[in-house]
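Homework-ish question, so no full write-ups if that breaks the rules, but can someone show me the predicted structure for this set?
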Amino acid sequence: MIKITNLEKYYRTEEVETVALNKLSFEIKEGEFVAIMGPSGCGKSTLLNIVGLLDDADGGSFMFNGIEVAGFNERKRADLRKHNIGFVFQSFNLIDELTVFENVELPLIYTGVKAADRKTRVEEVLDKMQIMHRRNHYPQQLSGGQQQRVAVARAVVNKPKLILADEPTGNLDSSNGNEVMQLLTDLNEQGTTIIMVTHSEHDAKYSHRIIRMLDGQTVTENILV
Amino acid sequence: MFKNYLKTAFRNFSKNKVYSFINIAGLSMGLACAMLILLYTKDEVSYDRFLPGVNNIYRIVSKEVNPDGSIAMQSGNTGSFHGPAFASGVPEIVSFVRFQGDYVNIKKGTEVLGQEAHFVDSNFFSMMQFPLLHGDGKTALQQPDAVVLSETVARKFFGSADVVGKTLKLQRNGTFKPYTVTAVAKDCPQNSSIKFQMLTKMELRPDEISDRMNWFNFFLNTFVVLAPGADVKQVEKKMMRFYETDAKEMIKIVAEKYNFKAKSEYMLQPYTDIHLSKDYRADNGMVGASNPMYSYILSGIALFILLIACINFVNLTVARSLKRAKEIGVRKVVGSDRRQLIAQFLGESYIICFVAFVLGLGIAQLLLPFFNDLSNKALSLAYLFDLQLISGYAALFFVTGFLAGFYPALVLSGFNPVQTLYNRFRLAGKNYLQKSLVVLQFSLATLLIIATTVMYRQFHFLVSKDLGYNDKHVLTVPNISKNEIAVFRQELLKNPNVEQVAVRNNGFNGTLARVNGNKEIEFTMDWVDADYLPLYKIPVVQGRNFSRSFTSDTSSAVMVNEAFVKAAGWKEPVGQVVDFWYREKKYTVVGVVKDHHYAALSEVIKPQLLCNDENNFGLAVIRIKEGSAAAVLPYVEQVYKRLLPVQPYSYEFKDISNQRQYEAEAKWKKMLLFGAFLTIFISCIGLFGLSVLSAEKRLKEIGVRKVLGASVTTIVKALSKDFLQLVLVSLCIAIPVAWLLADKWLQNYPYRAALSWWLFAATGAGIVLLALLTVSYQAIRAALAKPVKSLRTE
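A: Not a homework solution, just the prediction itself:
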């Protein structure tokens, strides 16, 4: 599904150039659950953002479902992203001005799903995430665990092929964290490919494979399953 | 999607009430001003266009060109002669109508009322198709004793508009004659240069039409209709050829007799050009002459206000964008592209703009009476039913929404989602745009405030300058001639509150005469009695005042002012001769009066000649005791009515009528004050909004500073400094510009208030103080907040 070859990314300020990704290569197959680990600043999040088409690489190749997407412009990236990729962030990133229902509905709006269909699909996924009773609440009225469940709901409502999770349990206590990990595992079992960046060895154990990174490169790969 | 945008927008607006208030308040005021100005401008350019066939109506105008090519005079006036003469000599002129303003006395029972009236040719309604309520325009003015009334006047005299066939007694040549009402017209529209109340047929003596000397007699308006398809330039050429042939002899005589060397040129002025014409103005019965400059100044002010409000929107939206950065990131992540975000934010700007627009309409409606008063108009928003104005307002809405919303939409939609979602987002750069916009705002506000102060000072100067005579507690009463003045004076002086009574001519006269043999001097000529100068306390600097002891004074003595002496170049003015050669009359100078401002202060003191000839007396001048007006006025009226029972009585206080000369200035100063107030208010609420956002943005910094021991004053200083610097930059830009503009404007006045540095310094200090108050409120609040609170939120 994803084939990355010699991927490069630099960050430049006026004085220094920092290498974030240094000729990184790996491949992820459809249906896999991969955890990416490594110390802070090793390039995990940068990698995730490039894979999620939120950021550009400075060199190398990135094939998504057999298509080279490295040179895509913003509109093409947005289009590919909204149909194929869901995101879960450590800090939830829900829109404060929208209710739970409206937050989850948002991706469907941008993919042009009709209002009636949207309602069914949002309710279905909220039900699955066991947060239906909170549908009319605003994010600030929810606990962290609930907020992350809403974020997961928003990530999956469009039935993406790939979910990118950036430290999804980082802001949660262990029981809420476990619940979210279980949700991701369930999704993976239903066929969704998952790439998760994490610091937590505990969370990484839910995955099939761990890619360990250091200084913008992969150092080891552990296959767990 | 649209619903989602709307929801987000409204929740954002209600969550950020200060921000929404600033934007909506500013924009609605700006839009209201722009709406009023649009209305004003539309009215200005629509003047007279309601008349059917108006594009074929012209006014005969003329100018006198000196041998050196300079223009001696431009005038919209003609005489009774020009219309018939040109119509007979130029075939393209299909018809002509003469139109002359006048004032008649009307007897209603035992009461005599003065009424504005116009004399016109009988075909008036065939050319000017003003709608009639009753009667037939074609025949209405056929008879010499016919009168056409406006609806208002009909109601004034008869209490009804349906009064065709009724009679009114009009005074003509001293006696009251019955006139029959033949038609009643709808009141003329507000955007009409002709606003007649009463029309009668023009009566002319045979010699007024036969005597070619009347080519040089100008006192009314002549309108002509040209044949369809006639070329105006060709018609003008034919008119000139006709004039030069027909008036040949007369041109020669006038040139010889009066040493008149200028050449007269006749032209046709489109009727629709009259209202805004600076060279050939609407007068002699035509009203509402306007200067396009007013439209420019008003539009400028409205544009300033709207621009400042839009700047608030841009600045606050961009400054506030940090708060919405996460939303933008999320929307991008879940699939929004940049165009959709631009549409969303532009849409929000249009929502704000729409609310402001609706409010603006309300504000404009509320301000309309005030605005009408200032602009001398009777505008109403009912003009809205006109497609042009609706499209004008729609354009205003779209342009404002775009102006305010496009740049923020472009900035916000360009945010990088990665940065916004990882809280790494900072607004890049030194924010030069925001700073420049604040500078622009305050420069405009400063400019308007200085303009207002300068105007106030000049106005104060005009109304308080020593005129060289005492115009306080002086009453003037017209229609007192030499026949009544002696008795009138005698009766009035019986009242202990009446101190002095004098008499002079009514109105102003300008003429010319020769001095020193052949030197011509143009001057103002006034006829006054011996009591006039003492009453006004105008000093005689050489020679003597007129005196009843010198019987020859009324026939051969004149007094002149110092400007006259200077123009004549006299060393010994008393005893000099002034030669009115065209009337074959010579006068001897008996005294010199000190220069005084007999005309408005918009004119320099020109040569003035006072004559004692009692035949021209017409205006009684009465000095009363201070504070006795209430007691004296009824007494004066009573004496007048006993003496002149068939004349309408009126009076004026001289100081008030002097002040009225500066009515235009008084109105403009109010208008500017209003504009200045709005610009500074909107600029300050914008600054306030920015200071709130800046304090929020620097919350952590403030907390850290406090923890490290900074005092409240240091923090307030740190927070206010940046904004005050911007205001200071604005002052540096605006003050020199304002100085130049004010100086240029003041050049229009020969007598003007000095532009002193302290005026600019005081204005500048005032603006700095205002800005300081605006930003320090928020700064003090932020500085007083407990640091633990701000640090914990991080």
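Now go work out the reasoning yourself. Hint: Chain A has one domain: 2-223.
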